[in-house]
Amino acid sequence: MTEIPADLKFPRIYNIMTSKNLVADSKYSSIYITAYRKKYKKHRITKYCAAKLIKKSEYASENEYYITKNLNHPNVLKPLGINKSLVTMIFYPWMTGGTVKDYISNRFCLTEHDVRMMFKQMVEAVKYIHSVGIVHHDLKLDNFLITKNGHVKLSDFGLATYHPKIGYLKNHCGSPVYMAPEILLGGQHTYSADIWSLGICLYELIHGKTPFDHLKNIKELEKEVQKPIEYLVDNIELLDLLMRMLSFYIVARISIVDVSNHAWLNSESNALLSKEASFRKKYATI
């Protein structure tokens, strides 16, 4: 099964799958950078794209493609096409700005304005997919990409599912340090699981790390996630948003609509948010 628009021409798969083209590798997939040709008037122009090779059949490759191909939002990455022959490969536009994780790793500190502008776009992406009934299940800074113009786009829908109209989801999936407690502890979950993961993303944007980076294994994480989280935050509105997103209890967790309308996201405060605790005047333990 192949779905490639008629105006696009990609290289043969075996020409893409070379070590020099490999840019990322994981248990389930590999990402290659390659060039494709797009028809423009009477000519073809060359552009770069990311070719995602699906390694394992249990990875929901076609699910990812069919969920994302019909999405239409400026902060969500859409695929260019899919080629499924001997292997499954999904093609995406190449994001030259890297990931949000890369962005903060290359900077000692950020201002509230920097974090707010980036996080607003992340929130809008999640708000959109929730509005069309999709739970992402793998929200993390590595899956938010940055365009050459600085716009943020949500990617990697391999674990995404549609939420049932009645009831809860039961699948146990995600990246452990971003995973909501109800998933980590084996319970049922709903859209609010994405809110927790997005809250961990905001925490990491502010602190430079997640609250659980120091833990060695899942057993430690299962215990730690049930304890109060320590926040090194001076701004009361920002602290309120973090607390409400990272509530252990699902019923107390804020909705994505309320996140987008929160006072901090719509304020103009612009303090320096350093990664080092020594640069902070105080901290709050909640």
Q: Your description of this structure?
A:
- It is globular and about 55 Å long.
- It has helices at residues 13-16, 61-68, 100-105, 112-131, 181-184, 192-207, 218-224, 236-245, 256-260, and strands spanning 2-3, 8-9, 22-25, 29-40, 43-54, 81-84, 88-93, 109-111, 134-135, 144-146, 152-154, 161-162, 230-231, 272-274, 284-285.
- Mean pLDDT is 86; it is low at 275-286.
- It has 286 residues and is an alpha+beta fold.
- Strands 1, 2, 3, 4, 5, 6 and 7 form a seven-stranded antiparallel beta sheet that branches. A two-stranded antiparallel sheet has the order 8-14.
- It has two domains: 2-93, Phosphorylase Kinase, domain 1 (2-Layer Sandwich); 100-285, Transferase(Phosphotransferase), domain 1, CATH 1.10.510.10.
- The chain is built from nine helices and 15 strands.
Secondary structure elements and pairings:
Layout: E1 2-3, E2 8-9, H1 13-16, E3 22-25, E4 29-40, E5 43-54, H2 61-68, E6 81-84, E7 88-93, H3 100-105, E8 109-111, H4 112-131, E9 134-135, E10 144-146, E11 152-154, E12 161-162, H5 181-184, H6 192-207, H7 218-224, E13 230-231, H8 236-245, H9 256-260, E14 272-274, E15 284-285
Antiparallel strand pairs: 1-6, 2-4, 3-4, 4-5, 5-7, 6-7, 8-14, 9-12, 10-11, 13-15
Helix pairs in contact: 4-6
